[in-house]
Design a protein that fits this description.
Structural class of chain B: alpha+beta
Shape of chain B: elongated
Shape of chain C: globular
Bound molecules: heme-A, dinuclear copper ion, copper (II) ion
Helix content of chain B: 40-55%
Strand content of chain B: 15-25%
Chains: A mainly alpha (520), B alpha+beta (381), C mainly alpha (324)
CATH superfamily of the largest domain in chain B: Cupredoxins -  blue copper proteins
Oligomer: heterotrimer
Number of domains of chain B: 3
CATH superfamily of the largest domain in chain C: Cytochrome c oxidase, subunit III, four-helix bundle
CATH class of the largest domain in chain B: Mainly Beta
Number of strands of chain B: 10
CATH topology of the largest domain in chain B: Immunoglobulin-like
Distance between the termini of chain C: 62 Å
CATH class of the largest domain in chain C: Mainly Alpha
Largest sheet of chain B: 5 strands, mixed
CATH architecture of the largest domain in chain B: Sandwich
Number of domains of chain C: 2
Order of helices and strands of chain C: HHHHHHHHHH
Strand order of the largest sheet of chain B: 3-2-1-5-8
Number of helices of chain B: 10
Number of strands of chain C: 0
Radius of gyration of chain C: 25 Å
């Protein structure tokens, strides 16, 4: 015990046994990047098979395993851990805390993940193959008709949930309890706010997901009939429980991204964030609304018309607080003195493309129109606009923005900008045409398609390869920066950046704020 | 921010108009970039609704991005501007909360009316049960006298086209052996359900998409104004061949429909006659092969080598006791993808396919199973 | 970076390296791998083939439990050594609170399922809302009542007559667990269970007031009684399951009634077991370890919150599973 003033331990045990929020944050970030590559690899397999009509590379059963694992790994393995990693790095530094509130548990939350994803990925090699029922695993395809590996999938989800819940409890405790004196709630950086609300969402809905998979487990192995009409249950019950989790989940993915962008845009506009208070209230409203809109994923299951209307109206309402955010960001830029370094480029990319994804979301929320959109590639286009151009772009922006602070070295700006432009073009080429094929009637989750969809699919695949390849550049740039980037020791790496983390030395020392800073 | 707003709006509207006109022009029959207006009143309504929301979103988008790009161009550091310091304004914030809210209400009104039109539950002139199976559709026409007509509709595209051995035909993957036939200008109600997992019955041009949920019935109706052939696909992931269970709807004149329906009823009567007959080996094998190709091949492979299902070639059951084989064929293997085919195939087809499995793929059992054997087995349970 | 605040600032204890997390992970992963394998052997496995599933599961579980044990032990020792600042203690309080909140949401999923089935699915299956078509075409003869004593499958004549393939065979219960003629009131276990659990919440509260007064022996007594009542509850619950299975024909297989009944009471029972164990550990700490003072007894407090939570869940359960 005792002396906190030395640096990290050496060797592997530093990482295995660490309780330091920065180490844990780093591990989360690298882990999520590894998962992004794996999930991205699966996406490349999907896009390669869809390059042309006809079955070329893989068989239909394997194709379904690819979509399922792609969705699961991207959502649970890449995006969520990446933002948890960011939270670990930044929240203590932003609120003036020495570390996270519960450091050992923090380490545990992380270390659960790698073996769990190993287990999940290993289902590919099990008898009957990996789960092939989509990331939404609707019963009874995921119960009565599932391969045996579903049991491993179920337990993986349980443990992932455990990790997320512990991680969130930690974040909540840190934010509520560890703020430096003077750091009132309404002075916290917006990233901290969005994460606090995200953590609340996680604690509220991960247990519901655990409940859903537990019911599946019982139906598969213990003869219950939750999801079987023959016994008085209902397959649609599964969907209600799943989406009660699933819809808040998509805001779990996007809220921290909102936080990131709310830090970066003011920094490069050299102007304070417009409408801080309304940003906070908007985030809270989105979180609240996210609990009462879940059935907009289920317009076609045959709900009574009153339910249909309720969920439609509630969903449409989300456009209001989200709009407030978009307008606030733009007003922040308005009459600022902007410069366009890589983090800012990615943030603007986020802003434009996320808004487009939001618009298609709004279109989807119109129940009668959704009868035509549902389960078509239009939906795929929608959620890649919000998740890839939303979450992934903002995550990328965050890495470029804070990396110099973390490691005391500057990334290569030209390479960063090149990365942005290739990503931006590749992304749009990949996913914009999907709107067209979706509207023209191409269902999602199919390994082969009718001839009229051929051209746009080929375009989409080419775009996907370009976008994927641009990630190599990113990986290279990050590693090159860490190993041999140009050293910088400015406290404020970016002249417009505000916040406690920028008052620390660069690179950020291993232990910070052991005595709390004063906040004006 | 009032200054220059007018010019901005004008600049913004030009591309919108351009875009909408292009899209509208393209939105004829079957567009490859936009939703099809379809051939029903409801379909048209949905299409119009879609265009309205799309238009509103495009306008908002152009305005919002217009402001943003204006700012990006003029408020940049390299132009030597000094940043302003304002960071809130209750007035504008209220405005941009209220205005979108009003826009949403404007969208919700037509959305609600369209929805209520779709949910109209007036009596239909024709009821059809649409039942999803892994991976085919069954259509059952309900008639007053209980003389129902039912048949399965399977993918017709040959494996050779799918696996790129042969050139792909025009309706690649969107063709079936027996389409659903509907009379034109008739209100038809579909009672949609499923036998195993959830499927979804989607025909874009009829603007009908309804999930088929095992154990529940969903209702949706349509009235088609134009004769023609309309194609769709299963749109809920339902397992391996989800991508290979198309829907073809053939809308014909009322007379043609009546004729077709009578023919179907006669066909059913014919099968009844066949039930009582005894068949020779080659008759059974021929019929069996076609039944196998349509119903079993997807899981058991073209050469009985297996896949989702176990191999039939050399299988202990297919080369064992006849009753064991009949049991699996008729009642399936609970808890696996092997369905109970007893309710799907008539006794003649069942007898044929069992005979076929026992005598093809190198299984040389030499025994003949007659429809009466199937009938007796079913009765004996 | 120093400030005036620093002078009166208590240091926040950030533990140095710790093996706990990694050990706990190994134990956890082994045990879930084992548990999943056991279930797969059970459902899909070949009974002839011997597997190591149970060994993996038990080794993992043991390792996991041992790690958790030493984890709590270390945390307690740190507290005794005076390392925990008031602020850190508050972190623990927050942690426990949000943990319990997550448990509430877990039960919420099952209660939600129950309400959905009872108010919507049952009537639909019986033909409500579509002019009886669903019932007429698919589940001819099914009538809905709760508790659902006859599954739709049985209503149409069992698994062979069943129109939906391959969903397994569901039996029906003979007697419902609700208060009904099958029981004399004094033999109706749920009522006794309610009494036992409510009393235990009260005794737990007495223990709390006594520790606040610093009266250790009364604290031990009331806590001991609470633990005893917890064990008694579990015993009664066990009897209840025995009756359900052996006498009333209500099993996990009895359709949705059996499913929801066992799922809710089962998970609740499991939580009672956890809460009881937690309280038992606090009792041992107090009696053997001579720990806890009027000021410092967070371990007990956290366990008692958990206990009250379990109690509240039971009240809902009693209301919606047994009575209404
Ligand atoms: C990061 C994740 C994320 C985010 C943020 C969103 C945001 C939204 N989503 Fe999306 N969604 C997904 C991820 C996400 N979604 C995923 C993964 C699926 C598919 C799941 C699956 O089936 O596999 C899905 C599917 C999905 C569906 C179901 C489609 C179907 O299957 O048929 C619907 C339907 O309502 C929907 C709606 C919305 C809406 C209304 C928003 C809103 O939050 C958007 C709000 C934003 C804006 C509207 C833009 C900005 C606003 C303004 C500029 C103000 C002015 C605007 C107006 C007044 C119009 N989404
Ligand atoms: C946040 C989540 C997330 C992210 C980031 C992505 C990223 C991508 N996704 Fe998606 N996707 C989902 C979440 C996500 N996805 C979900 C939830 C589904 C639904 C699943 C379901 O239906 O159940 C889905 C489904 C889905 C489909 C539909 C499948 C179907 O319905 O049949 C497609 C098809 O194009 C697709 C493509 C892609 C592509 C090309 C990327 C790209 O952005 C990926 C780019 C990344 C890389 C390529 C990896 C890193 C790069 C390298 C390692 C360099 C080497 C690569 C090359 C040289 C090419 N995804
Ligand atoms: Cu049937 Cu998809
Ligand atoms: Cu949603």
């Amino acid at each position: 015990m005792g002396d906190h003033h030395h640096g990290p331990a050496k060797g592997l045990t530093r990482w295995l046994f660490t309780t330091n929020h920065k180490d844990i944050g780093t591990m989360y970030l690298w882990f999520s990047f590894a998962m992004f590559i794996l999930g991205g690899f699966f996406a490349m397999v999907i896009r390669a098979e869809l390059f042309q009509p006809g079955m070329q590379l893989i068989d239909p059963a394997f194709f379904n395993q690819m979509t399922t694992l792609h969705g699961l790994i991207m959502v649970f393995g890449a995006i969520m851990p990446s933002f948890v990693g960011l939270a670990n790095w930044l929240i203590p530094m932003m609120i003036g805390a020495p570390d996270m509130a519960l450091p050992r548990m923090n380490n545990w939350s992380f270390w659960i993940l790698p073996p769990t994803f190993l287990l999940l990925a290993s289902t590919l090699f099990m008898e009957g193959g990996a789960p092939a029922f989509g990331w939404t695993f609707y019963a009874p395809l995921s119960t009565t008709y599932a391969p045996p590996s579903v049991t491993f999938f179920i337990f993986s989800v349980h443990v992932l949930g455990l990790s997320s819940i512990m991680g969130s409890i930690n974040i909540i405790a840190t934010v509520m309890n560890m703020r430096a004196p003077g750091m009132t709630y309404m002075k916290m950086p917006l990233f901290v706010w969005t994460w606090l609300i995200t953590a609340f969402l996680l604690v509220a809905v991960m247990p519901v997901l655990a409940g859903a998979v537990t019911m599946m487990l019982m139906d598969i192995h213990f003869g219950t009939s939750f999801f079987s009409a023959a016994g008085g249950g209902d397959p649609v019950l599964f969907q209600h429980v799943f989406w009660f989790f699933g819809h808040p989940e998509v805001y779990i993915i996007i809220l921290p991204a909102f936080g990131v962008v709310s830090q970066i845009i003011p920094a490069f506009s050299r102007k304070p964030l417009f409408g801080y208070d309304s940003m906070v209230y908007a985030t809270a409203s989105i979180a609240f609304l996210s609990f009462i809109v879940w059935a907009h994923h289920m317009y076609t299951v045959g709900m009574p018309v009153a339910g249909e209307l309720f969920f439609m109206y509630a969903t449409m309402l989300i456009a209001v607080p989200t709009g407030v955010k978009v307008f606030n960001w733009i007003s922040t830029m308005w009459r600022g003195a902007m410069s366009f370094e890589t983090p800012m480029l990615f943030s603007i990319g986020f802003l434009v493309l996320f808004t487009i994804g939001g618009f298609t979301g709004l279109m989807l929320s119109i129940a009668p129109a959704d009868f035509q959109y549902h389960d078509s590639y239009f939906v795929v286009a929608h959620f890649h606009y919000v998740m890839v151009a939303g979450a992934v772009f903002s995550m990328t922006a965050a890495i470029y923005f804070w990396l110099p602070k973390w490691c005391g070295r500057m990334y290569n700006e030209t390479m960063g900008k090149t990365h942005f432009w290739i990503s931006f073009i590749g992304f749009n080429l990949a996913f914009f045409p999907q709107h067209f094929v979706g509207l023209a009637g191409m269902p999602r989750r199919i390994p082969d398609y009718a001839l009229q969809f051929a051209d746009f699919n080929m375009m989409s695949s080419i775009g996907a390869f370009i976008y994927g390849a641009s990630q190599i550049l990113f990986l290279y740039n990050v590693i090159a920066t860490i190993v041999a980037g140009e050293p910088t020791s400015e406290e404020k790496v970016w002249d417009g950046a505000e916040g406690l983390e920028w008052t620390l030395p660069t690179p950020a020392p291993y232990h910070t704020f052991e005595t709390p800073p004063a906040v004006k | 921010m009032g200054f220059k707003a007018k010019r901005l709006v004008q600049a913004a509207l030009a591309p919108v108009l351009l875009l909408t006109s292009v899209v509208c022009a393209a939105a004829g029959e079957l567009s490859s970039v936009n939703m099809s207006p379809g051939v029903t009143v409801v379909g048209r309504e949905i299409y119009d609704l879609h265009m309205i929301i799309l238009g509103i979103c495009v306008v908002i988008g152009v305005l919002v991005f217009g402001v943003m790009f204006y700012s990006i161009i003029y408020h940049r550091k390299s132009r030597g501007v000094t940043p302003a310091t304002f960071h809130e304004s209750t007035k504008v914030e209220i405005a941009w909360t209220v205005v979108p809210f009003i826009i949403l209400i404007a969208m919700a009104v037509p959305a609600t009316t369209t929805l209520l039109d779709i949910y109209d539950t007036d009596e239909a002139e024709l009821d059809i049960i649409v039942k999803g199976y892994q991976w085919k559709w069954k259509y059952e026409y309900l008639t007053e006298d209980g003389d129902n007509v039912a048949f399965f509709s399977n993918l017709r595209t040959p494996q050779a086209e799918i696996y790129n051995v042969e050139a792909k035909g025009q309706n690649y993957l969107l063709e079936v052996d027996e389409p659903l036939v509907l009379p034109v200008n008739t209100k038809v109600r579909f009672l949609v359900t499923a036998n195993d997992v959830i499927h979804s019955w989607w025909v874009p041009q009829l603007a009908v998409k309804k999930d088929a949920i095992p154990g529940f019935i969903n209702e949706i109706s349509t009235r088609t104004a134009d004769e023609g052939v309309y194609r769709g696909q299963c749109s809920e992931l339902c397992g391996k061949d989800h991508g290979f269970m198309p829907i073809v709807v053939n809308v014909v004149s009322k007379e043609e429909y009546a004729e077709w329906f009578a023919g179907k009823q006669a066909e059913a009567a014919e099968v009844n006659d066949l039930m009582a007959q005894t068949f020779a080996m080659d008759e059974l094998m021929d019929r069996g092969q076609s039944v196998y190709t349509r119903n079993c091949l997807a899981c058991h492979g073209a050469d009985g080598e297996g896949g989702v299902g176990t191999a039939i070639a050399g299988s202990a059951i297919a080369t064992g006791d006849v009753s064991g084989h009949l049991e699996v064929g008729i009642n399936g293997v609970p808890g696996t993808a092997m369905q109970a085919f007893g309710g799907q195939l008539n006794d003649v087809d069942m007898a044929a396919v069992i005979t076929y499995q026992r005598n093809a793929f190198g299984n040389n059992m030499g025994d003949l199973i007659q429809p009466i054997d199937v009938y007796n087995y079913k009765k004996g349970q | 970076m120093t400030s005036q605040a620093a002078t009166e600032y208590e240091k926040y204890y950030v533990p140095e390296k710790s093996k706990l997390a990694v050990c706990a992970t190994i134990g956890l992963i082994l045990s879930i791998f084992g548990a999943a394998s056991i279930m797969n052997d059970m459902t899909f496995g070949d009974p002839e083939e011997s597997t190591y599933s149970w060994s993996i599961f038990l080794i993992g579980l043991f390792f996991f439990m041992a790690t958790l044990f030493s984890w709590f032990k270390i945390a307690i020792q740190e507290n005794i050594a005076g390392l925990n600042s008031a602020q850190l203690k508050k972190s623990y309080v927050l942690g426990m609170f949000w943990f319990i909140f997550s448990e509430v949401m877990f039960f919420f999923a099952f209660f939600g399922a129950l309400f959905y089935v009872r108010t919507l699915v049952g009537p639909w299956l019986a033909g409500d809302g579509d002019g009886g078509r669903m019932n007429g075409i698919l589940w001819d003869g099914f009538e809905y009542a709760w508790p659902m004593m006859q599954t739709p499958q049985e209503a149409v004549g069992g698994a062979t007559e069943q129109l939906i393939a391959n969903n397994g065979a569901f039996t029906s219960a003979e007697t419902s667990m609700a208060f009904a003629d099958a029981h004399a009131w004094y033999a109706w276990l749920p009522m006794w269970n309610t009494a036992v659990l409510l009393t235990s919440s009260l005794t737990c509260h007495f223990a709390h007031t006594n520790i606040l007064k610093g009266d250790k022996s009364k604290f031990n007594l009331w806590l001991g009684i609470t633990v005893g009542l917890g064990i008694f509850f579990l015993f009664l619950q066990f009897m209840e399951y025995y009756e359900a299975y052996e006498l009333f024909g209500l099993t996990l297989n009895s359709g949705i009634y059996g499913s929801t009944f066992f799922m809710l009471t089962g998970f609740h029972g499991f939580h009672v077991f956890m809460g009881m164990t937690m309280l038992l550990i606090q009792l041992l700490r107090s009696v053997i370890g001579k720990q806890f003072t009027a000021e410092d007894h967070f371990g007990f407090e956290a366990s008692s919150w958990y206990w009250h939570f379990v109690d509240v869940v039971w009240v809902f359960l009693f209301l919606f599973v047994y009575i209404l």
